[in-house]
């Protein structure tokens, strides 16, 4: 399945426009993903935040198998528009949770059992919508770029999108102090308005061939997964999801452990936001730099280098765990932000390099990253010993480093894979 490319000599502004929409939309979602485990736990809903994120990413992974078929039927900007409703729905659950908490109601819709069901169901809907969003997004960027400019375009997108970590956490820092209910209300509104902005994207997409059946799509996914080129990438995709799981479901624990036991939860939450703001700043820097570097340096070498940055992040995190140093949490956040955007960008760029015009490859990326995120999030709940969790991430990093080093010696050409 292919689309005609958008007209025009330079499409930088189109990549920037898409990145800006994602910036505002994910200022809401990323901020909530970073804080939801902490906020729900403080509201006496135990691990509901982490469980909902696990449900979201599990649904994301499963539904990504069918996402290419949906994305192939419609213009990507419309797919992204409708997909945004899932994010708005998930964020709105926070309004219900804190309405119940603030009014001290624990029966009916506010009973713990029903609230769990509502939040988890909305998380699943969000996960399904995320699968179509994240298959359509790289397909849109691919359509407006060439192989020579692809890294730069993806870099522009990721730099703007990951700046949501800065904007979202600054908003969180201010709004959570006023009221968690107000925080979720504002974030839900921002996410909803951002979703409608997808309709403003310039687009002249036309289907160039018939849409394949689900059976043919599944066969296409199997063929790509079985190819020699894809094998090293599978672990790299998993690695990308592991990074997301670390800073959304575990980094806050390291920050909390570095704070005095008698410190107020309000101040602890504020200090967590400071670290995530730094994480966002380095996400932006990484996006800009990785975009230009990947168009000028061997992309497979950059992928291998990204695993080394994660190794440094892990070393600092382990030292932070033992020393309970808040200063090291900032360094850890900076390294995780750098590696997250770099790895996310490189998985996109390399995928489009190895599998041009094959939307199924984006689905495979979404499946592996979401599966990794859900698995590592549930590990963060089930494994009480934090050092064991850190060692598991170290093991994944070492395997990924070995795997990415083989990318450059793959001998198959992109057009050797036929669906």
Automatic annotation (TrEMBL):
Its main location: membrane. Keywords: Membrane, Transmembrane, Transmembrane helix. This is Major facilitator superfamily (MFS) profile domain-containing protein. GO terms for cellular component: membrane. Gene3D superfamilies: MFS general substrate transporter like domains. GO terms for molecular function: transmembrane transporter activity. Coiled coil: none annotated. The chain crosses the membrane at residues 12-36, 48-66, 78-98, 113-135, 156-175, 181-201, 234-252, 272-293, 300-322, 334-355, 362-381, 387-409. The lineage of its organism: Eukaryota, Sar, Alveolata, Ciliophora, Intramacronucleata. It comes from the Eukaryota. The keyword NADP does not apply. It is found in: Membrane. Pfam families: MFS_1. InterPro entries: MFS, MFS_trans_sf, UNC-93-like_regulator. It is a multi-pass membrane protein.
């Amino acid at each position: 399945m292919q689309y005609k490319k958008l007209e025009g000599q330079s499409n930088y502004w189109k990549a920037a426009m898409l990145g800006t929409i994602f910036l505002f939309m994910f200022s809401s979602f990323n901020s909530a993903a970073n804080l939801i485990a902490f906020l729900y736990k403080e509201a006496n809903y135990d691990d509901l935040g982490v469980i909902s994120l696990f449900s979201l990413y599990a649904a994301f992974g499963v539904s990504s198998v069918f996402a290419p078929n949906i994305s192939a039927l419609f213009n990507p900007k419309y797919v992204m528009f409708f997909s945004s409703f899932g994010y708005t729905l998930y964020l709105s659950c926070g309004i219900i949770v804190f309405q119940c908490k603030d009014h001290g109601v624990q029966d009916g819709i506010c009973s713990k059992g029903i609230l769990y069901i509502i939040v988890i169901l909305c998380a699943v809907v969000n996960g399904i919508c995320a699968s179509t969003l994240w298959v359509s997004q790289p397909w849109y960027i691919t359509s407006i770029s060439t192989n020579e400019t692809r890294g730069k375009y993806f870099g522009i997108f990721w730099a703007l999108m990951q700046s949501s970590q800065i904007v979202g956490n600054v908003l969180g820092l201010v709004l959570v102090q006023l009221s968690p209910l107000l925080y979720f209300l504002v974030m839900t509104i921002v996410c909803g308005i951002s979703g409608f902005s997808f309709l403003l994207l310039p687009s002249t997409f036309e289907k160039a061939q018939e849409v394949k059946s689900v059976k043919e799509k599944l066969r296409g996914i199997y063929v790509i997964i079985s190819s020699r080129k894809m094998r090293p990438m599978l672990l790299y995709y998993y690695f990308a999801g592991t990074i997301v799981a670390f800073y959304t479901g575990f980094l806050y624990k390291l920050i909390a452990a570095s704070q005095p036991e008698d410190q107020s939860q309000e101040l602890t939450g504020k200090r967590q936001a400071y670290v995530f703001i730094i994480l966002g700043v380095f996400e932006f820097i990484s996006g800009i730099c990785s975009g230009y570097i990947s168009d000028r340096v061997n992309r497979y070498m950059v992928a291998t280098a990204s695993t080394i940055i994660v190794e440094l992040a892990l070393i600092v995190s382990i030292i932070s765990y033992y020393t309970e140093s808040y200063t090291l949490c900032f360094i850890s956040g900076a390294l995780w932000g750098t590696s997250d955007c770099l790895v996310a960008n490189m998985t996109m760029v390399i995928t489009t390099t190895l599998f041009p015009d094959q939307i199924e490859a984006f689905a495979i990326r979404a499946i592996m990253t979401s599966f990794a995120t859900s698995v590592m999030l549930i590990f963060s709940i089930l494994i009480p010993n934090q050092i064991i969790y850190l060692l598991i991430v170290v093991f994944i990093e070492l395997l990924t480093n070995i795997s990415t080093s083989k990318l450059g010696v793959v001998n198959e050409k992109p057009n050797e894979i036929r669906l």
